[in-house]
Design brief:
single chain, mainly alpha, Four Helix Bundle (Hemerythrin (Met), subunit A), 5 helices, 2 strands, globular
C-alpha cells in the first residue's frame, strides 16, 4: 500500500510542478522567455529546453537502459539554436512531461526496488524518481523566479497571496 501511495504522490507532486511552471511561463512574453539576466545566466527557454532534454533521456526506456542516452547532447540544451522558437521548446517540454507521467503510471509497486542506471551509476527506482523530482523542483523554482521578475507588478501569484 505505501509503495502505491509513493507512486501516486510522486505523480501528484510532479503534476503540480508542471502546472506551476506552465502558469509562470504564461505570464511572460516571448522576449522575456528568451531573456538572459547576464551572459552566463540561463533564460527560461534554456531551463525548459534542459529539463525537456533531461526528461527525454531519463524516462525513455526507464527500466531497461541508462538514463543518460548516448544521443543526448546536454551542453546544447543551454544554447539557443535557430529552430528554438517558444512553441518548439514548449512542445519538447510537454513531450518530456508526457513521457515522465506515462512511465511513472506504468510502474508497479514491485518495481520500486528494481535497479536502474543513470550515468553509469545504479539507483533503485525510488532513488531515481527522487533524484529527478529534486532536479525538476530546482529548475521549476528558477522558472518561477525569472517569470515573477519579468512579470513585475503584473505577476499573478501561483499560490496563496500575501496576507491571505
Amino acid at each position: 500500500m505505501i509503495k502505491q501511495h509513493f507512486l501516486d504522490d510522486c505523480l501528484f507532486q510532479l503534476r503540480k510542478l508542471k502546472a506551476q511552471s506552465d502558469k509562470a511561463m504564461a505570464q511572460v512574453d516571448d522576449a522575456q522567455f528568451f531573456a538572459l539576466l547576464d551572459p552566463d545566466a540561463n533564460s527560461i527557454a534554456l531551463i525548459v529546453k534542459h529539463v525537456a532534454g533531461n526528461m527525454r533521456s531519463r524516462w525513455t526506456d526507464f527500466l531497461t537502459s541508462d538514463g543518460e542516452k548516448p544521443d543526448r547532447n546536454r551542453d546544447s540544451e543551454f544554447e539557443r539554436d535557430a529552430g528554438d522558437t517558444r512553441e518548439a521548446i514548449i512542445a519538447r517540454w510537454d513531450a518530456g512531461w508526457d513521457l515522465l507521467f506515462t512511465t511513472i503510471m506504468a510502474l508497479a509497486p514491485g518495481d520500486l526496488g528494481r535497479t536502474v542506471i543513470i550515468r553509469g551509476e545504479p539507483h533503485t527506482v525510488v532513488q531515481a524518481i527522487n533524484r529527478q523530482l529534486s532536479h525538476y523542483s530546482a529548475h521549476v523554482g528558477q522558472i518561477v523566479l525569472l517569470a515573477k521578475h519579468y512579470a513585475g507588478a503584473g505577476w499573478k501569484t501561483l499560490s496563496i497571496p500575501k496576507r491571505k
